[in-house]
Amino acid sequence: MSLLNIFKNGLWNEHPIFRLLLGMCPVLAVTTTAENGLAMGLATTFVLVSSEIVISLLRNVIPARVRIPSFIVVIATFVTIVDYTMMAFAPAIAESLSIFIPLIVVNCLILGRNEAFASRNTTLRSIMDALGMGVGFTWGLVILAAVRELLGTGEVFGFTILGEWFPTWNVMVLPPGAFISLGVILALLNQLIIWREQRIQGVK
Amino acid sequence: MENLLLIFAGTVLVNNFVLAQFLGICPYLGVSRQVDTAFSMGMAVTFVMTMAAMVTFFIQNYLLIPLGLEYLQTVSFILVIASLVQLVEIFLRKVSPVLYRALGIFLPLITTNCAIMGLALLIPREGYNFIEAIVFALGAGVGFTLAIVLMAGLREQLEMSDMPQALRGGAITLIMAGLMAMAFMGFAGVIGT
Questions:
Q1: Which domain range does residue B165 map to?
Q2: What pLDDT digit, counting tens, does each position of B159-171 carry?
Q3: Cβ-contact A22, A109 below 8 angstroms
């Protein structure tokens, strides 16, 4: 697989949220505003890229039996860096993401990619994989957060989109809205895939 | 006593870990196909949560804070939880093969369950003392079990039903979880937040 294909893989074919359903806790919890979604996506991407670089460099040094604990220590180190950096430079966002920043450490997407990809590929390929997955994760978070923020408050990134006439659906920014909007988005994407497969079969 | 009861009921119903705080979503979506397995998973999570709450309480208050090492919280908690799960697995296999057969396959999955890590991180933030922390962990575990068993019961019924292909699997489960979360929001008025 070429480097570009590795990158593109995470954007759609193996999209972490919509196709693999990985890392769902932060996806549902922090997507109350598009800004929070973007911040979470960038934080996760940073941890993913840094940990895949380190682990792909150390992949021939780490004994197979203590693989998982070693990965966890590397990941936890970068998570701590992100946590303290955000508290220092973006305290408001760190406040609203609260425990979900330290919880990046148990995001199965990160451990999963390190185990499945970085531990058996070169550094350059791992960086492309991490960037693809990170960007894929981020756009998924931003889309879901934008839908919830738009329907729940009439705004996206704090800019008013829907005017006074729109009766805001308060439930969308509350927990039930997270489950329902992600469920509906998943169903729509599945339907698109089904239609596309039907069209391809129709052409044949 | 009243305080402890409020913590317990509040975590089970109002601030349910799965439905209100989004902790433990992976097993909630992944292991909720059958009521039996869902119940075993719930029990395993409750057990590990209570153990983890006790151990991380001591780490936080007698190791990290006196030594000024709070920045090692994330690293130390995740390592402690991972080794705790391993220990519990070895212990159960030796001492109670019956319990091991019931919970064993779920134990490795629990290490990356954010409900356990989330619980360990929430206890210092809420400022609970040792007893309160244990009650909080029990409440979180019972709340998780309640949510996952309810979902498994619904999904067993769903197997029989005829629905659009696009909704099958993740999509319908998430929508049902949303409806369940809405129902649980009703408890907020009963107990108060």
A1: 15-181
A2: 888 888 888 888 9
A3: yes
